From TrEMBL:
SUPFAM superfamilies: Homeodomain-like. Keywords: DNA-binding. Residues 9-69 form the HTH tetR-type domain. Gene3D superfamilies: Tetracycline Repressor, domain 2 (1.10.357.10). Transmembrane segments: none annotated. This is TetR/AcrR family transcriptional regulator. Residues 32-51 bind DNA.
Amino acid sequence: MKKKPEITAQTKQNLLDAFWALYCEKRIEKITVKEIAEKAGYNRGTFYEYFTDVYDVLEKLEDSLIPDIHGLPPISIKNQDMEMPLDMFMTLYEKNSKYYSVLLGDKGDPAFASKLKKSTKPVIKQAFLEKSNINPIEFDFILEFVLSAMIGIMSYWFREDKVLRAEELVLLMHDLMENGVMKRIKGEL
């Protein structure tokens, strides 16, 4: 007898939610399949119908949070006004803040930031390289720097309970990218 798709989807979501609740409390290596199954109200056998182990749950959850190239809004660089798409990152981060703030935090998965950068780089590269004659290899390093900074500052913003308004944070990031950190620190702006 086949299971109904909506019941199957709900069971999987219940297991993911149970895992997430545990993951927010403790490191992944301390979480057991038995704990996840019990917290979700199922037995271990049900868990194994959907996942191979605890790390598989984390991977599937992360994969659902990483936008693919088609899930990101298109970036349009008009004329010579070339700017990083900060609003796109802010929207993505706020939409998934419940997860991103943990996964990109001190107790999160160090590989998650790399997955996030890898998914967004192609869209940004395409938009900028069409309008610029910068060396693609050099641009790759620039993007790595900028994306690392953006992920870091947004993670910090969430850890600090959004002490700046979102608009202020976007303006600060824009200013730092356009004018540089040292000019800002020295008060030369």
